[in-house]
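#data-curation
PF: Archiving a pair of folding outputs for the training set. Convention for this channel: one message per protein, sequence first, structure tokens after, nothing in between. First:
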Amino acid sequence: MQQFDSVRALRWTGQALELLDQRRLPHERVYLACASAQEVAVAIRDMVVRGAPAIGVAAAYGVVLAAQQMPDVESVRLEIQKLAESRPTAVNLFWALQRMGKVLDAGGDAVRLEREALAIEAEDIAANRRMGELGAALIEPGLAVLTHCNTGSLATAGFGTALGVIRSAYAQQRITQVFADETRPWLQGARLTAWELQQDGIPVTLQCEGAAASLLRTGQVGWVIVGADRITANGDTANKIGTYGLAILARHHGVKFMVVAPTTTFDLSLAHGGLIPIETRPMEEVTSLGGRVIAPEGVAAWNPSFDVTPADLIDAIVTERGVIVKPTTEAVRMLLA
């Protein structure tokens, strides 16, 4: 079966991490070489690489670079802390750094840390393919799907989470059309999702987020399918800003809502979504577009990067371990036990 999976956001050379600069897509396909942990941290902060799983993989390779270059373990630990400070919401970042930290604490050298980072990357791709199979099985043929932000190969080590489900469903001829929100203010849907699906020959139609309600009312869409940056113990899910509104619209129109994320995205230390730290980014991302100011001078802007969708608005959370239907604290606990 054709995989429809030709894009990769990260390339490890052994001495550097090459990142597809997602700020320059879709017009330029340029890889930025990061030769130090500090350069990886800056690339994560500045959204050269984005998407929770991809950030985690990139950070793991950042630790390898630190171990290759730093004179002692304490210096490497300082670089790990700097990597952890690059983005506050995506739990995969902290999970990957904790995993690399355990190897370091056990006396692992740069070679052992490199093996661990390679394993994290390979495990992410395998998990995405498994989630693709499980999520596609939930989709009855005949209707389109709607997705938000970018959750594909650009946001992961490869294949994608929500887009992995969409890739699998398209390969199985369960869906023939994908609608993608443009996703302001970084336009990940317009710049990244539309480009990525186009690269693999999957039909995609772009829309403004404001058109979502009207689209769902037409009855064309059977599922809204999104990724996640953090999922709490009760199933509440943090994802790109605008996801919560989509979940409300989906419930109102009788459209099912699916979250697709590896189990590394769960944060069982948080009981509910109200405890998730939400990153707020610069006002200029809202008041400007493509480097050009579009708002009146001096106007303020609120720019949270994520919102939290309550578990009771989610029909299914798809993970590599299985599917949680109608998520609850007990259902999450049983899956992760």
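PF: Second:
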Amino acid sequence: MPPTHPPRRRFGASIASLLAAGALPPSLLAQTREAGTYPSRPVKVVLPFAPGSVTDLITRILADRLSQRLGQPFVVDNKAGGNGTIGAGAVAHAAPDGYTILFTTNTTHSIIEALLKQVPYDPQKDFTPIARLAGIPSLVVANPALPIASIEQFVAYAKANPGKLRYGFGNSSGQIGGATLERELGIRMVAVPYKGNPQAAQDVMAGHLEAMIADVATAQPFVKAGRLRALAVLTDKRLTLMPDVPTLAETVSPGFDVIAWFGAFGPAHMPTQALDVLARELNLAVQDPGIDAQLRGNGIAPGFVGPAAFGPLLHRERARWMALARSAGIEPQ
């Protein structure tokens, strides 16, 4: 009976000799090198926002976890600018091999087409959705020197001083939230954009702005220290971390509910193995009690949605955020 193993040995030997001779086509060479267990080398994690932001905090917590679990460095690369389009565009056009991934928010994938006329990628077609990982709630905060003590008094003060109050925002949630409030409540303020919420918070505390829409992770330490006054959260339910802060919905704007999402993507056509490994490990990460406590302690709401459900969720979120932008009167620039 003829042996069954020699043909396999001859095939393996021929591949090895071709590799040694550099005779394989580049595409087959790349596939051969990556055929082992993923990841076999460091992975670049692109974050399209600035260091020190709440997204930077989440990204570094999860990248560290992935590095520990998978035995390869997951290296965070902050590529801020262009409302996140610089970093997101870099991943959209990266090799779809699983070694360049994107951690981002609704800014680059749900709302960007309402903010910019020219977007250097297609949010729907140029990415592989890996997972939705968390929600990032925001709130209205003010300089304590402002002669108000509640969101109702803030609105009354804004109406009595049209065009005089300056408020900052460092992301799309703050931009949409502030513009929606102005439109719904009939108030007129001066919106001041920032590259990130930490910079805007510093200017509120310094008196250069009267208020801002901030994520909870940025604002909470300053609220505790008495350097910022928390007026209302943008979600429709109060936050466990700040239970005494009312919602906009229960005070001045019934039905108001805005929360950003945070998720992970790869380029389109990312290998199934890489997708499965990353989704599995990220699911385990957000369920880890230590990571869960660390995120919730910063006002972040962990919540995993896997690849199969994340795609449809993205379509719904895009429709919701685009509608919010239109109703707020925001025009793409």
